[in-house]
Amino acid sequence: MNGSDAGAKQVLEALLFAADEPLSARRLAALVEEITPGEVTDLVRELNADYLREGRAFHVQEIAGGYRLVTRSEFAGWIAGLRAAGGSPRLTQAALETLSIVAYKQPVTRTELESIRGVAVEGVLKTLVDRELVRIVGREEGMGRPLLYGTTDHFLEYFGLPSLDALPRPDELEILFADRERQVELALEEPRAVADPGDEE
Amino acid sequence: MNGSDAGAKQVLEALLFAADEPLSARRLAALVEEITPGEVTDLVRELNADYLREGRAFHVQEIAGGYRLVTRSEFAGWIAGLRAAGGSPRLTQAALETLSIVAYKQPVTRTELESIRGVAVEGVLKTLVDRELVRIVGREEGMGRPLLYGTTDHFLEYFGLPSLDALPRPDELEILFADRERQVELALEEPRAVADPGDEE
Amino acid sequence: MADEAQPGHSVRIETLDFEGPLDLLVYLVQKNEVDIWDIPIALITEQFLAYLQNMSAERLEGAGEFLLMAATLLRIKSQMLLPRPQLDEDEELEDPRRELVLKILEYQQYREIAEQLRERESAGRLVFARGMPEWDDALIAEAGHAPPEPGERVSLGDLLRSFTRLMEEARRDRVHHLEPLGVTIEEKAEFVRERLRREGQTSFRDLFVPGEPRSHWIVTFVALLEMVREGEIRLRQGERFGEIHVYAAGSAA
Questions:
Q1: Which of B4, B48, B79, B151 to mutate against chain A (most A CBs within 10 Å)?
Q2: Does the domain formed by B5-71 have CATH 1.10.10.10?
Q3: What is the pLDDT of residues B69-93, one digit of tens each?
Q4: ipTM for the complex?
Q5: Do B17 and A71 touch (CB under 8 A)?
Q6: What are phi and psi of C72, to 5 degrees?
Q7: Which CATH class is domain B81-189?
């Protein structure tokens, strides 16, 4: 590594340290200047190797399409003492179930959510929008043009996911579906017409 | 340095990293447990020596009231870039309220905005126009021909909306954001399905 | 309604809380260790109804969904009892339980995902990102850059909430000046009783007098909920979101 590389790595570290949201490799590359997103990824890897070797209490986490610095989980107990007020409350079972459906079926309408869960979801949906885990992504074509909902970047952050592709899959059930009822799998993946925002103006 | 010291130093680092205010040696000692404020001061000195040797982009700063982790001043330029270019967007409460009325009532005059908010909005309106969230869309017919305001394309980007059309209608807003009393009212308009199982037996 | 649990196959479930009728069905299927593709519908229906009978009054709010499912179960049960028609060789008989089973499976799948999200939520609570390092502003200013504008970070949710609140304030002001409440739940209950005495039955919608203040509608609605809970009236609906009819509990519907 030459001196100029070391400089870029330091700038990268300073940016990650000062940011209050995950930063994508592309954005970091633009901010550091004269390095590529690929080089950012390499430098982040080097940083994490440094932190591990030096026994730092934090590391770079890949999350929501970007990178951010977080403490290692073994220090949670001490930090909890520091932040006595506690963060946001845990989500309820109803909220988690609704969120799971939004995550997999997005864009999805309230009616679809209610038909799968078998209960009204308006209160839960309000909580999820309030907590910025779910957002309005458009309207469905056709009758009544109901609002369509999808997940946010904060959803990925909240659950520590690098991207939507990293969502957990319920393996056992998938096998069950594949064996017995292929139709259900198809119904789960049915594509949807989304209003093209370009047309509306 | 023995193993137990290394542990305390790491905990100290985790606490300084996660804190959003300076922490005094006394408070840090209480949080780490089983070390004295004097030992905290020693460990902080060790941490700073580590950071210097390893070329970290940050260090522990001692200010009135305690210690905090900050980036080294030579990185201030890059961090300013982080804040400026697409950093977290910020709006005051007054701007937000005015913007929400413009969004729903557009095209709207300044007088209408003031009658809804009950305060002068001239300054706020100027900020919103400066930030390209609101623009002048024309003049009203009739007396005085006052200017009419509406939202911009940047407004849509800012709030992640595919189009103006995706802004929830007032009836949909009630579902998402009404308080409890209003939800009872809504239930009136869209009665829940209630069936009587007794009949079918 | 009997307070005692149903005898026979009944499982003691009255102390548990369920997210909805599907949640309850998943529980019953697992508890009884039955094959999801060959659900003993009579047994499950019986246990489902037993749960409904023990459901506390406070949960009446969500009871509609449970009642709807109970009706579905009873319909499937009666279809299962029908003699099977003769079929041509290439025709297949649709199992009356099939649609329900697919619904249960789909719901179960999302519940499984919810559980995994719960684990991730817990793991996420163990790591801490850095808070907004406001002290960097001085450094940034030193480096010749303007510090960022102060204020709240806003989202679409903030914008929508802001508008809703403003509109509610405007509405509340009007209500307070022009419309004192002036009606009690008991008065509205008597109004419903009177209507039923006169006409035998009535449509739900007709009980809300057009032009009446919204606040009166709320009182009517609460009165109806009370009357359903007391077993004084029954509500019936032909189809989902269809017209709801109100009957006196004693009348032949």
A1: B79
A2: yes
A3: 988 888 888 888 877 654 445 678 8
A4: 0.68
A5: yes
A6: -60, -45
A7: mainly alpha
